[in-house]
Amino acid sequence: MIKVRIPTPLRRLTEGQGEVNIEGDSITALIDTLETQFPGIKERLCDEEGAVRRFVNIYVNEEDIRFHQGLNTPVKQGDEVSIIPAIAGG
Amino acid sequence: MDKIKGLFCKECKKPYPAEAIHVCEFCFGPLEVAYNYEAIQKRISKEKIMQGPLSLWRYEDLLPIESTPTVGLNTGFTPFVHAKNLGAKLGLDYLYIKNDSVNAPTLSFKDRVVAVALTRARELGFDTVACASTGNLANSVSANAAEANFKCFVFIPADLEAGKILGNLIYNPHVIAVEGNYDDVNRLCSEIAGEYPWAFVNINVRPYYSEGSKTLAFETAEALGWQAPDHVVVPIASGSLLTKIHKGFHEFERLGLIPTVNTQIHGAQAEGCSPVATAFKKKKDFIQPVKPNTIAKSLAIGNPADGYYAIKIAKETGGLIESVSDPEIIEGIKLLAQNEGIFTETAGGVTIAVLKKLSQQGVFKKNQSVVAYITGNGLKTQEAIAPAVGAPWLIQPNLKSFQQTLKKEQK
């Protein structure tokens, strides 16, 4: 299982859960699994073309997926994924 | 008080109540304060501002608080210097330095945003304040929290300059040094902010916090005799400061306090962390994050929240976003110190070096007004400049020793 941390603005979709444990071998697969369990969450994370939205950042084990292979970044058992609003800091 | 209508999403315009929230639940866009400009128009005037306190609170009508200011009562209204020596070197008759390196209480522009954020945090009922910081913000939150009796947690990268770490500890907040860069600190704080009922000034209180930066534009316009300058040069870390300086001039214009604004807004980054300048030059409107490696640690944000908006504003106003190397930053710090007697930190070195670069590129006309924003104090980043300033003459306590040394040194 892979632990995915859900940011506050999306917790209404996850019945209030801040963390969910799901299966998947890439970020794309995880998002699809999330969508199956929590319908509507995918369109909040990805735009019409399927790219990650401008104001959403996704991290695998604390590293921004844009430093890996974006949505194709592979994930394995025990990895932790964070979804975080991009607007913060400075 | 009727000046704040609420918050709204800068992207999809969805309205929200004026609470401690910072992103749109639907599109994750940033939330901005929605002002009732009609109400503000009725009570604001140049005369009223000029009779106001000698602090940023003279612009209270355009700041997002509902009661009266309680924090940062001595903040802002910093020197606005006609930089004649540096101007002569760069071929500019009207070069001005907005000198926030002597802002109160902690010697950086961050005192402005913290004054607003903590006043608002108190109004919203918080007893604990926090921030993710490259240094200056943590210093300001720590000092202001001490005076205003908030509990305080500041999160910083572990490798900050000694002066900036000490500049937190002295006020006795909880200082959390994170083993990582600022972007790691910021990501962690976003997660912490979701779990604790604290006012994170640059996360859940960010819509109010960031408005404090507008006062740099307000003070500039007032100091120029109620007009906006032809050009400004602004350092870019997250990009928020640049967007708010732009907003400040346009709010004054909208309220009829200054004539039409044609200010060209230029941005300054360090080469070792220039995601915004790189995207600008490649004509992209999305930012590829970077791993920062520069002496300008206060600007070392590899994943800048407002980078997209900074690019948009530079483009719209005919401005440029340039980057400079670490040696150019050192040179910039020395140039400002040795011509104007102002000792700025590395971020100020970036601003001055970009100012120089743009003037060499012929971006400014000789008789145009140019304002460079100096946002922090050089005594906080001594490590960066120490190797480049030489050493004192060491002599014996007698006349002969002095005369011999003078002769030797003057050869």
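qc> The first strand of chain B starts at residue 4 and ends at 9.
qc> done
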